[in-house]
């Protein structure tokens, strides 16, 4: 009977050793997959960051160009408005001066 128990123990030890090898192989596969997933995620993050940065730079360049054009357009509009106001002031200034002199020199009782 002891030989039967000895053989059973050997079988149990062999099964335990085989189970340990299976668990170790599963752990190794899991660690490999986790490392691969981490690397894939880092690559994807870097690509997204690059894409986002490029989009930002394109928008920045587009709005910067518009900003310069807008400033130039506003300067032109402002200069035109100033010129228009100067012309209007010179056109009516003689009449305003005459009206002021008339009202200042006229005495009402």
From TrEMBL:
Pfam families according to UniProt: V-ATPase_G (PF03179)
Biased segments, Basic and acidic residues type: 36-61
Region annotation Disordered: where it falls in the sequence: 36-73
Annotated keywords: Hydrogen ion transport, Ion transport, Transport
Domain of life: Eukaryota
Keyword Transport annotated: yes
Alphabetical list of Gene3D superfamilies matching this protein: 1.20.5.2950
Entry keyword annotation includes Acetylation: no
Family membership noted in the UniProt record: Belongs to the V-ATPase G subunit family.
Function comment: Subunit of the V1 complex of vacuolar(H+)-ATPase (V-ATPase), a multisubunit enzyme composed of a peripheral complex (V1) that hydrolyzes ATP and a membrane integral complex (V0) that translocates protons. V-ATPase is responsible for acidifying and maintaining the pH of intracellular compartments and in some cell types, is targeted to the plasma membrane, where it is responsible for acidifying the extracellular environment. Catalytic subunit of the peripheral V1 complex of vacuolar ATPase (V-ATPase). V-ATPase is responsible for acidifying a variety of intracellular compartments in eukaryotic cells.
Assembly mode: V-ATPase is a heteromultimeric enzyme made up of two complexes: the ATP-hydrolytic V1 complex and the proton translocation V0 complex.
Designated name of the protein: V-type proton ATPase subunit G
Organism: Camelina sativa (False flax)
Name of the encoding gene: LOC104717924
């Amino acid at each position: 009977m002891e030989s039967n128990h000895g053989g059973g123990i050997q079988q149990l030890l062999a099964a335990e050793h085989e189970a340990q090898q299976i668990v170790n192989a599963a752990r190794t596969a899991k660690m490999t997959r986790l490392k691969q997933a981490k690397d894939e995620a880092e690559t994807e993050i870097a690509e997204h960051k690059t894409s986002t940065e490029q989009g930002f730079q394109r928008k920045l360049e587009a709005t910067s160009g518009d900003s310069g054009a807008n400033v130039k357009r506003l300067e032109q509009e402002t200069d035109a408005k100033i010129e228009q106001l100067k012309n209007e002031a010179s056109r009516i200034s003689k009449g305003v001066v005459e009206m002021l002199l008339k009202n200042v020199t006229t005495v009402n009782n």
